[in-house]
From TrEMBL:
Protein name: Serine/threonine-protein phosphatase 5
Localization: Cytoplasm; Endoplasmic reticulum membrane; Nucleus membrane; Nucleus speckle
Gene Ontology MF term list: metal ion binding; protein serine/threonine phosphatase activity
Positions annotated as TPR repeat: 12-45, 46-79, 80-113
Natural source organism: Urochloa decumbens
Catalytic reaction equation(s): O-phospho-L-seryl-[protein] + H2O = L-seryl-[protein] + phosphate; O-phospho-L-threonyl-[protein] + H2O = L-threonyl-[protein] + phosphate
Length: 483
């Protein structure tokens, strides 16, 4: 036996305890690093792998969580937490059938555990519901667009409605400001006006290409924001720090407007209203959370149903399919929610020609635009998320050279400072949801560009108070169990 073995085992256990403390303090990246050090010293302990899987889940790195939990199961096939962690990761990815198999194993190993019994029953219900929805779903060719069935003009506004009103067809700045105030008080606008905003936005988005060119005149400025994730009060704080959107103060919000945060309806109606008000000064890109599968899991679908009703669930799903996939500012800056591609040689013209009106596919250019992440090492690697890929600085450099661009701005990942600069300064991640999910403790950020130099000026900010409504408040109870 190696003389260091006992010493290594003890060191590994000490590292695990430190990792557990970091996890409790919501320092999940630090916890992963410490669990990794423990694994290097003692890789045959299933607990370390399962604990690291849980930390990966907290950072939404579900692909890595599945790998670690699988390793825990290989080490100890009777270790229930291995199946539990893997099932939770599958669940977060929307892979309900795979999750069900793992929770069945948990129940088999712990037949008298009431928690395992309850979660298995809920998982079975969720899978049954999905199978039923699949059975009754209508094929794309037969589906009539819900937007075509809505005429907001015939919806009556009751005399007792005391909120803001839109007179006629034009959405005005006065209306939008009054709407923002209503939302701050946790009130909603009348459904007629919500329909009017969403349908007008749909009309505008349908006329846009999949890749949008943005021109900022010399001396003009332009602001790019990352994920907002239903954090309405932090969105309002951005406007207080940087000014309301206007022709002189244009914005691009780079996807993931909804889900997780429980004020997603307020966020999306605000962004859409400004799009209606200033079509050339409010740009909106699709994120991976602007999709039915994510909205079903992470709360937006439940929130829409609660605040606006069932028909809006289908309507938002349609509108999200028309969101552009990427933007190029002044032929210099490529802005995309996720990242780059599994193959070299992708040109801007290839992105422009993507037929985007669909739910995001599980592979291909559209999937990679929405889901990919950068990695520090060169080349390409598997995704931490279990979808798309990770790409290195050499991939970034080649894409920029092939398309005569200066650098990339993307979002998609929570960052402690609200942003991170990688790949020799050629790639910036910007994330605009501070203290994400009320637990991450991160700052938010946005980026201001001034033409013609187009150098990024990064502004960071902290979270502001919001009403006592928890993140994921409208998600399925079963899904909240595992958050």
């Amino acid at each position: 036996m190696d003389a260091n073995t006992n010493s290594d085992v003890q060191k590994a256990e000490d590292l695990k305890l430190k990792a557990n403390e970091a996890f409790k303090a919501n320092k999940f990246s630090q916890a992963i690093e410490l669990y990794s050090q423990a694994i290097e010293l003692n890789s045959s302990n299933a607990v370390y792998w399962a604990n690291r899987a849980f930390a990966h889940t907290k950072l939404e790195e579900y692909g890595s969580a599945v790998q670690d939990a699988t390793k825990a199961i290989e080490i100890d096939p009777r270790y229930s937490k291995g199946y539990y962690r893997r099932g939770a990761a599958y669940l977060a990815m929307g892979k309900f059938k795979e999750a069900l198999k793992d929770f069945q194993q948990v129940k088999k190993i712990c037949p008298n555990d009431p928690d395992a019994t309850r979660k298995l029953k809920e998982c079975e219900k969720a899978v049954q519901k999905i199978r039923f929805e699949e059975a009754i779903s209508v094929g794309d060719a037969e589906r009539r667009l819900v937007a075509d069935s809505i005429d907001y003009h015939i919806i009556e506004v009751e005399p007792q409605y005391a909120g803001p009103r839109i007179d006629g067809e034009e959405i005005t700045l006065d209306f939008v400001k009054a709407m923002l105030d209503e939302f701050k008080k946790q009130k909603c606008i009348h459904k007629r006006y919500a329909y009017q905003i969403v349908l007008k936005t749909l009309e505008l988005l349908r006329s846009m290409p999949s890749l949008v060119d943005v021109d900022v005149p010399n001396g003009g400025h332009f602001t790019v924001c990352g994920d907002v994730h239903g954090q309405y009060y932090d969105l309002i704080n951005i406007f207080e720090l940087n000014g309301l959107p206007s022709e002189e103060n244009p914005y691009l919000f780079n996807g993931d407007f909804v889900d997780r945060g429980s004020f997603s309806v307020e966020v999306i109606l605000t962004l859409f209203a400004f799009k209606c008000l200033y079509p050339k000064a409010m740009y909106l890109a699709r994120g991976n959370h602007e999709s039915k599968s994510m909205n079903k899991i992470y709360g937006f679908e439940g929130e829409v149903r609660s605040k606006l009703g069932e028909k809006f669930v289908e309507l938002f799903a349609e509108v999200f399919c028309w969101l552009p996939l990427a933007h190029v500012i002044n032929k210099k800056v490529f802005v995309v929610h996720g990242g780059l591609f599994s193959v070299d040689g992708v040109k801007l013209s290839d992105i422009r020609s993507i037929d985007r009106f669909c739910e995001p596919p599980e592979e291909g250019l559209m999937c990679e635009l929405l889901w990919s992440d950068p990695q520090p090492q060169p080349g390409r690697g598997p995704s931490k998320r279990g979808v798309a890929l990770s790409f290195g600085g050499d991939v970034t450099k080649k894409f920029l050279e092939d398309n005569n661009l200066d650098f990339i701005v993307r979002s998609h990942e929570v960052k402690d400072e609200g942003y991170e600069i990688e790949h020799d300064g050629k790639l910036i991640t910007v994330f605009s949801a501070p203290n994400y999910c009320d637990q991450m403790g991160n700052k938010g950020a946005f980026i201001r560009f001034t033409a013609p130099e187009m150098k990024p000026d990064i502004v960071t900010f902290s979270a502001v108070p919001h009403p006592d409504v928890k993140p994921m408040a409208y998600a399925n109870n079963f899904l909240r169990m595992f958050q």
